Amino acid sequence: MEQDEIELRKNCSRKSEETKPLVPDFILVCDKHESDVDKRKEFLDKLEEKGFIIETQDIKDKKLFYGVRAPSEIFQNYQCPLKNSDSGLQNHQTKKDVPITTRIRIVNFILQNPKISPEETLQKLIKAKVFEAAFPLHEQGLRKDLKENWAQWRKILKQQPIEDIRSYFGEKVALYFAWLGWYTRMLFPAAVLGLLVFLYGIFHFDSSQVSKEICEANTTIMCPLCDQKCPFWQLSDTCTYAKVTHLFDNEGTILFAVLMALWATVFLELWKRKRAEVVSGWELYGWDEDEEELALQLINDPKYTLKFYQHSYIRSTILLLLVLLMITVLIGLAHALVIYRVVATVLFTKSNFEFIREHASTVAVVTGAVLHYITIIVMTKVNRRVALFLCELEKPRTFSERENSFTVKIFTFQFFTYFSSLIYIAFFLGRINGRPGNYVRVAGEWRLEECHPSGCITDLFIQMAIIMTLKQTLNNLEEYLIPWLRLRFRKSLANPKDKNEVDMEKGPEDSCKEQWLKNYQLNEVNVFSLFDEFLEMMIQYSFTTIFVAAFPLAPLMAFINNLFEIRLDAIKMVQQQRRIVPRKANDIGIWLQVLEAIGILAVIGNGLVIAITSDFIPMQVYKYTYSPCVLQNRTDINCLTGYINHSLSVFRVQDFEWQMKLPEKLPDFLRSEITECRYRDYRNSDDYNYSAQFWHVFAARLAFLILFEHVALCIKLIAAWYVPDVPQSVKNKHLQKKHENLTGVPGK
């Protein structure tokens, strides 16, 4: 295959030297029998009026290929208005040409905007089957270099050739890979720290005082987990669950959550510095996107009428209400998952399988997490359609405004889709379910779920682990295998024997046109392809930072995933897809603000997880207020001795509305003596009102939350101030350039 491509390039080069054939900037493809000939001709005539050269080739079956090349005047008109700004063209102006990425971007803008009627653009003509495809050609030379040095699995640990990526795919794609590489590199220390925290939990798997008390509580009878047919149960039955909980709910996890909140700030500040260095080298430090778009509009239409900024409070109010309505729907789906777990727990307790019956609550959580992931897949498509519809209502002024508006909306919808259920488990599970004898019920029938006596953090861990694992694994398989299979299927449609016989009779010109066909056979580039990659990473970044206190292995999973993600995206763009239309950029755009918002949510989220979800605060209150170390001045025992008994309230069995079933394996001497059972809460045993301990713990949780978030936010602000967004060398370089422009005297 590589030898064929080398011979193809030789033939094209030889033809170019002899007759200077058309080297198209873009290829348009249509079905010559099924397409609307009049509209197609009208569109092509519009291009020819602008000076475009169009070459028609009947290459394959019923397909017509049009090679479109723009006149050089268009690019000269582009250079002139931007010659005094950081356009990245200074090195090319002396040669009177522009980079190929700039040519493609300008031609694509013109192709997308010449209207043959008020409502018909190229994009709409493609949807109407007037044209089948429109794409720029891959350059075989640089494409081969990228394939050998970047887009291969064996290069997984090699540094990315960002400059080559920029020269081939444009600045926006290059900045995505630069950011992704930087993010992955910064994940390494966080992954190591998270792994150490996890190993700390494993090494202390059997040493937790809380776990020991649960495992030894053979005489502690717990209240039934459901109504009527559910039995009483012994606290010691959940010994393993308590030990697993200690893996994620220990002193190391608390410190890790604080450090990850700081890590999010440091990562963002260091990326700003890295970005400044990169775009300064590209001479795009002062580039302005609005100016760029205005220049393209004027090139396309010298009589272009400037569109001014507009704002409608009525339209904004309608959009806000629609967004809130959509968020309400997403939260409602999270509530539906809650109801599923409630009902599933009841059904699993009646199962004929002993394992499912004994672990009904855990099985309900696991199946609920899988169902949540299926909901995510479905709602992702719905969210996209809704976000596009809202963008149309908003009527943004430019393409960049439309992209930013769409980004904010789709990320907001996706955030609630992914995290609504996690928020419920983290902050509401087991806290709004009532108490024995007075439970909160769904539809007046099913009781809400309860937390395990050792806390709810394991439920949160299970939910996060399943969703994050499925998301990364299945998404990567889908992202790689489906395009690969589709490409293989297309290639298999051609008969290799006939193809080789025809190639023997082909001349150089036919070999050049073969490139058009090979590019056409590649997978189509989705207009949201780069956007989808950014969105995927932002959701992953949210998992890695916001609830990391419950899942310290999240940074490690993200790090491993991203090592493969970089090469997967590279292989997809270089080998499997048609060439993406390059776009200019000097930053990752609105995604930077999304990262900053996630950083703030990370502080709030981890603070809430430690204060509410974790048992860290109740244990500290007991340790320094109610433990034997305080009340009895003892130093010979663990200060958490007696914590479990202290954290469980007493309920009189006679106060139940019906007789509860006794477990068959309960010892005989206990079966006849059950007059009371225990449940997780701080309530008095006489009137079931909240006890003084409840308010002590509540005050401690609130105080910790306020202190944690204020300290963490202060550290974030100090780190943001301490690490300048732009390196001094970059500032001095541009200050010197401004001095030279004003004085005409070269700097030292």
Descriptive overview:
The protein has 748 residues and is α+β, with helices and mostly antiparallel strands. Among the domains are: 21-137; 171-206 and 240-275 and 304-496 and 529-612, no CATH class. 63% of the residues lie in helices and 6% in strands. It contains 29 helices and twelve strands. The strands form five sheets. It has a four-stranded antiparallel beta sheet, sandwiched between helices. Strand 2 and strand 3 (63-69) form a beta hairpin. Helix 17 packs parallel to helix 23. The longest helix is centred in the middle third of the chain and has 37 residues, at 313-349. The two termini are 53 Å apart.
Name the helicity range. 55-70%
Q: What is the tally of beta strands?
A: 12
Work out the radius of gyration: 32 Å
Q: In which order are the strands of the major sheet placed?
A: 2-3-1-4
Unreliable sequence segments: 1-20, 83-95, 495-505
Q: What shape does the CA trace take?
A: elongated
| Main sheet: strands, sense, barrel | 4 strands, antiparallel
Give the helix tally.
29
State the secondary-structure class. alpha+beta
User: Residue-averaged pLDDT, rounded?
Assistant: 81
Overview features:
748 residues, alpha+beta, four-stranded antiparallel beta sheet, two-stranded antiparallel sheet, 29 helices, 12 strands, 63% helix, elongated, disordered N terminus
